[in-house]
């Protein structure tokens, strides 16, 4: 298939592009390139792509495409809370417009990168499945719910949206993010000797490796239409349903000498959800996650050491919010997060 991969220069997109190519797909990227230079290790070989803002996408960008994988977004809660209106413009309105253009162009499958954060304050120890009530607690998560609702309205005999509700990602990507929990805790442990948890450690936070996300999307791309049409899937695996305190313990085992410190100073995080991944297994029996949290912690520790992660890069270069704040202060992006010409 010819696949348009939005967000191909992000943390997940940089890992997903080669996985799609290895499966025989022709990948065309689309990204504003906000974090294109936030690289740890060798510079990745990106597929050919459009350097364009999602809000400026036209019919030309989706012409001749068989499927769209839509990752581009302001990708986490702090970004969403920084500018809620921008989050809705980019994550919600521009995403729905992209889907409409894709449908009009005859694109048949549209895999949307949603998130398990849509369950938000699910709380408790029960597993939440895809039909659980959605309780987003941030503009970011709310934007994902709105896109799912609107894409559902576009589904028809020729257009198959699929809602890929990813658990929180972890693992090495050349375009690293240090603002997601495992990547953050491992980096902090290496740089300071401490696995520092500011919440009380109790929230459930299911995790999934970036490569397993890429494999799940690749599998969903070629799954039979009736198995995935207009459906939501939790992406991850029960073995990685862990609490933040358990994640911290795994990190301490992976980074020798590091000590866990749970301060609880940020109180209880309202986002807590323990997730049921059985629908994905039933729909795509060939797929299962391969990476455990422990393996990911070891992989990250190796990569951070090998590529000499510095405190400066950890805090600024690989933290999405810090990068955008710096670009805004330097005037390279305007207050709508568009590049200044
Ligand atoms: N990483 C996770 O833990 C995780 C978990 C669940 C869901 N997701 C979703 O997966 C997707 C990818 O996440 P990621 O971790 O790779 O994030 P990321 O921030 O690394 O990548 C997002 C990409 O989108 C691009 N982008 C942002 N605004 C844009 C705009 N206006 N126009 C064009 N491009 C724009 C950025 O330049 C970046 O390359 C996002 O939709 C995110 O919400 C991620």
From TrEMBL:
Gene3D superfamilies: NAD(P)-binding Rossmann-like Domain
NAD-dependent epimerase/dehydratase domain sequence ranges: 3-236
Domain of life the protein comes from: Bacteria
Pfam families: Epimerase
InterPro entries on file: Epimerase_deHydtase (IPR001509), Lipid_A_modif_metabolic_enz (IPR050177), NAD(P)-bd_dom_sf (IPR036291)
PANTHER family named among the record's database cross-references: BIFUNCTIONAL POLYMYXIN RESISTANCE PROTEIN ARNA, NAD(P)-BINDING DOMAIN-CONTAINING PROTEIN
Designated name of the protein: NAD-dependent dehydratase
Organism of origin: Streptomyces cellostaticus
Classification of source organism: Bacteria, Bacillati, Actinomycetota, Actinomycetes, Kitasatosporales
């Amino acid at each position: 298939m010819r696949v348009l991969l939005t967000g191909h220069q992000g943390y997940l997109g940089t890992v997903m592009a080669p996985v799609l190519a290895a499966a025989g797909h022709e990948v065309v990227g689309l990204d504003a390139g906000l974090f294109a230079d936030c690289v740890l290790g060798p510079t990745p070989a990106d597929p050919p792509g459009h350097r364009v803002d999602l809000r400026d996408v036209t019919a030309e960008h989706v012409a001749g495409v068989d499927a769209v994988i839509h990752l581009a977004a302001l990708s986490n809660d702090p970004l969403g809370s920084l500018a809620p209106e921008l989050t809705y413009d980019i994550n919600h309105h521009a995403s729905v417009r992209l889907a409409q253009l894709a449908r009009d162009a005859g694109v048949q499958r549209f895999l949307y990168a949603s998130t398990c954060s849509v369950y938000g304050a699910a709380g408790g120890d029960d597993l939440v499945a895809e039909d659980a009530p959605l309780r987003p607690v941030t503009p970011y998560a709310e934007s994902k719910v709105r896109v799912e609702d609107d894409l559902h309205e576009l589904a028809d005999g020729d257009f198959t949206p699929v809602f890929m509700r990813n658990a929180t990602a972890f693992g090495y990507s050349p375009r690293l993010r240090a603002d997601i929990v495992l990547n953050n805790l491992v980096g902090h442990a290496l740089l300071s000797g401490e696995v520092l948890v500011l919440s009380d450690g109790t929230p459930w936070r299911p995790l999934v490796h970036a490569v397993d996300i890429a494999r799940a999307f690749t599998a969903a791309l070629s799954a039979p239409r009736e198995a995935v049409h207009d459906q939501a899937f939790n992406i991850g695996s029960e073995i990685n349903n862990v609490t933040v305190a358990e994640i911290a313990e795994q990190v301490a085992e992976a980074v020798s000498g590091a000590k866990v410190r749970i301060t609880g100073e940020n109180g209880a995080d309202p986002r807590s959800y323990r997730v049921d991944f059985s629908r994905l297994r039933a729909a795509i029996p060939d797929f299962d996650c391969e990476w455990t949290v422990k393996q990911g912690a070891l992989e990250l520790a190796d990569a951070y050491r090998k590529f000499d992660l510095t405190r400066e890069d950890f805090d600024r270069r690989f933290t999405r919010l810090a990068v955008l704040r710096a670009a805004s202060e330097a005037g390279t992006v305007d207050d709508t997060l568009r590049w200044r010409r």
